[in-house]
């Protein structure tokens, strides 16, 4: 599934990285705990989170993730977006709650490995 | 050709900015063209260690040595030390405070993750003196 489709499913706004929406992802990770993301992520290129701070981008960077989606309408600051731009990570935001966002992506075929 | 040596200072005062050293190391390893899986493991080890230094020990120094077949990451701090290393290595054990938890850390997963992602990990620590964590990651 590419990031265009993910944007549309989640009715999300792209905040940076519009030029990379043709990237394909096959699996996602949803967590507010960066500790968990660091410990459990394998090849999930998509991170859904309600946590908003620069360590989210750092964590995604370390795990080679391609896209971060802030759920529950969270709005990242310019510092976060700047960090993501430098690392070519796409950032979106969606008003949806985590459970709904994950359910929609899963039911549309983003079921993981 | 000798090993490539990288040195970083980690500022203990700023958890928001923590991770800068890990990010720089990762970029350098990418430029060297090392295998992505090796880079990722090294990055996780260093980032977890860097965050620990900031949360638990008020910063420190990191030395990275990139050899022909091994990356060695050594994190040294002059923080409080770890009284019981076996307990600290248990998944779920954490003394992290609210500031760390509010940023999404403090699950007690870091040290076990560093052990899992490295091929060898040594912790030298003394209460009241500081902690040195040394991790080796084989390149092949
Ligand atoms: N450099 C250090 N100096 C002093 N104590 C440390 C250091 N690193 C780890 N510890 C101690 O070991 C515990 C476990 O560390 P670990 O990295 O596994 O978990 P955490 O940092 O508390 O949470 P997480 O890594 O999941 O965000 C810490 O809570 C802390 O008590
Ligand atoms: Mg930790």
Order of helices and strands of chain B: EHHEEHHHEE
Instruction: Just name the CATH architecture of chain B.
Output: 2-Layer Sandwich
Taking the sheet with the most strands of chain A, its summary is: 5 strands, mixed
Main CATH class of chain A: Alpha Beta
Across the major sheet of chain B, the strand order is 1-2-3-5-4
Structural class of chain A: alpha/beta
Overall outline of chain A:
globular
Q: How much β-strand is present in the residues of chain B?
A: 25-35%
Question: What is the β-strand count of chain A?
Answer: 5
What is the count of structural domains of chain A? 1
Largest interface, C-beta closer than 8 angstroms, per-chain residues: A-B, 20 and 26 residues
Q: Identify the CATH class of chain B.
A: Alpha Beta
Give an overview in words.
- The complex is a heterodimer of chains A (113) and B (140).
- By secondary structure, chain A is an alpha/beta fold.
- Chain A is built from five helices and five strands.
- In chain A, α3 packs parallel to α4.
- In chain B, a hairpin with a 3-residue loop joins β2 and β3.
- Chain B has a five-stranded antiparallel β-sheet, with helices on one face.
- Chain B is built from five helices and five strands, in the order βααββαααββ.
- The interface between A and B is medium-sized, with 20 and 26 residues.
- The complex binds adenosine-5'-triphosphate (ATP) and magnesium ion.
- The site of adenosine-5'-triphosphate has 23 residues of chain B, from α2 and α5.
